[in-house]
Specification:
Helix content: 40-55%
Number of helices: 25
Strand order of the largest sheet: 2-11-5
Structural class: mainly alpha
Number of strands: 11
């Protein structure tokens, strides 16, 4: 299925790196070229979300702990190169392990999964499952013996409860728990990862947590190098993949500013919390439950939320907690018209043209921006008068030789979203009484609303290519390669296109590819 540049002309301006709608042709690597996306052997630290997810799998009900994020790339935080434990943050990890160890010891037999907490038999039972679950692989007899020796020494000095807590801490502070290893067998060149390494990679890629028993069973049988087996696990676990998609769209679309901007624009805490929950429910229902496409994500004009969410949108709530809410199709359609995205890219003031336009142009379409060395406020004073409307300012900025380098591509998108205030609510006039002018002309096509622009973005090739590139980066924890010139991401893009923009087929294509399980040494 061929997608076209529906929104924007293929133009490159001074001050902007790349352009909206510009997709160049180029050579495709055959998998052996240096540009192939196979990554180097590596170890990468669990993210805070992954850490807590792993703890919950082992100790349901354990307290969530706060841990530091690594530096992000393009807003993505699941990055192998940037997450480390060092002298600057090690205390946070030791305190997290202490909190969980103390909690587990307080639970006693239920946490240890034994009937006789404090006995030698209970310790043996605990060591029979806990280290292997934490390390996401079979443990050696030497590793078990070392942990047992640690417990025995501490039990003699203190008591069984203290020793048990310390045992939990020791495992949670082990690099075998804190890091994901993708090293492969001994050798040089390109190697296929070992079975437990593939199992860990697969579990986190699909659910955001380590491998379940079915994946580990296939690892034990040596089956995970088979792409068909990996695909079967993706489809089996699809209903548990919400965390992956919720986090990906939140990070790719740079929505981490949501809470700070909600506070600035005066949204109360209840509405703020409910809008974040609405976003997560929307992604879950459209992408996971509905096995939806990109078009569905960007055009669906109903949502799922509380009565407070319905009131926020001026809609009717059927009652009974979180429920499906029908939205005005002239006002809302898809994720980019939900409160969470609008507020994250909104500010308390007259206009949000630049913020929202650039959020699409720069972040959602993989275009770089080289800031111009000018005084923007002074430049605008020269372009327009003090009484100019928002639309007149945007038009003048786009027409200017210097400012227009970037703004003539991004501002029309931002104009279309001006029917939403900084707080994301629908508006037809500004606070000063001037009417909102949201009609936008993009590449010669007139769009009357953000709903129309959002639907067009779902079909835009640059937008779709950027999504595939960033999602590959997110899943693999490193740049996976360009969707035009590198084989694996290009094949993932082709699968995405041929399936009509299916997110499930996109994930399946990435997991099936040899580059998913091969590393350079």
């Amino acid at each position: 299925m061929q997608r076209y540049h529906l929104l924007f002309p293929a133009l490159v301006f001074a001050g902007c790196v790349g352009s909206i709608g510009d997709v160049a042709d180029g050579p495709v690597n055959d998998g052996t070229d240096p540009g192939d996306p196979r990554l180097d052997a590596r170890a990468w630290r669990l993210t805070p979300e992954q850490y807590n997810a792993e703890v919950q799998q082992m100790f349901p009900g354990a307290p969530a702990v706060n841990l530091p994020l690594g530096a992000s790339e393009f807003g993505l935080t699941n990055i192998s190169e940037t997450a480390r434990i060092d002298l600057g943050n090690v205390t946070q990890f030791t305190e997290a392990a202490r909190a969980i160890g103390t909690w587990a010891a307080e639970q006693g037999a239920s946490a240890a999964r034994c009937d006789d907490f404090g006995t030698s038999a209970c310790v043996d039972t605990f060591l029979g499952w806990f280290p292997s679950a934490a390390f996401r692989r079979p443990v050696t007899t030497e590793e078990v013996a070392g942990l047992r020796s640690l417990y025995d020494d501490l039990e003699t000095q203190y008591d069984a409860t203290w020793a048990f807590s310390a045992l939990v801490r020791a495992v949670l502070l082990s690099p075998h728990f804190l890091y994901r290893y993708e090293v492969g067998p001994d050798g040089e060149g390109v190697v296929t990862l070992q079975q437990h390494e593939i199992a860990t990679l697969l579990g986190f890629a699909v659910t955001g947590a380590g491998p379940d028993e079915a994946i580990l069973a296939d690892a034990a049988d040596g089956r995970l190098a088979d792409a068909d087996v990996r695909e079967a696990h993706v489809r089996r676990l699809w209903s548990e993949s919400s965390d992956i998609w919720q986090r990906f769209f939140w990070e790719w679309l740079k929505m981490s500013t949501f809470r700070s901007q909600a506070n600035e624009t005066g949204l109360d805490e209840v509405v703020t919390n409910d809008l974040e929950d609405e976003y997560r429910a929307f992604v879950h229902e459209v992408v996971v439950e509905g096995r939806g496409s990109l078009s569905a994500l960007l055009t669906t004009n109903h949502t799922w939320g509380t009565a407070a969410v319905a009131d926020y949108y001026g809609a009717t709530h059927p009652g009974g907690g979180v429920a499906e809410i029908e939205l005005d199709p002239e006002q809302r359609g898809g994720l980019l018209t939900l409160g969470a995205w609008l507020v994250a890219h909104g500010k308390d003031g007259r206009a949000n043209v630049v913020r929202r336009g650039m959020a699409v142009y720069r972040d959602a379409m993989c275009n770089g921006i080289s800031p111009l060395d000018i005084d923007l406020e002074e430049a605008l004073k020269e372009l327009v008068g003090a009484d100019a409307t928002v639309k007149e300012i945007a038009d003048a900025r786009s027409a200017d030789k210097t400012c227009g380098a970037c703004h003539r591509t991004s501002d029309p998108v931002g104009i279309a979203f001006e029917t939403y205030g900084g707080n994301g609510r629908w508006q037809e006039t500004y606070a000063d009484g001037n009417p909102v002018e949201a009609e936008a002309v993009i590449d010669g096509v007139t769009y009357s609303s953000a709903v129309e622009v959002s639907a067009a973005l779902a079909e835009d090739e640059s937008f779709r290519r950027c999504l595939v590139k960033r999602f590959g980066h997110f899943v693999m924890g490193a740049e996976f390669g360009d969707t035009v010139s590198v084989r694996a991401p290009r094949e993932a893009y082709d699968a995405f296109e041929e399936s009509g923009g299916s997110f499930e087929e996109l994930l399946v294509a990435i997991v099936r590819d040899p580059a998913f399980v091969e590393r350079r040494k």
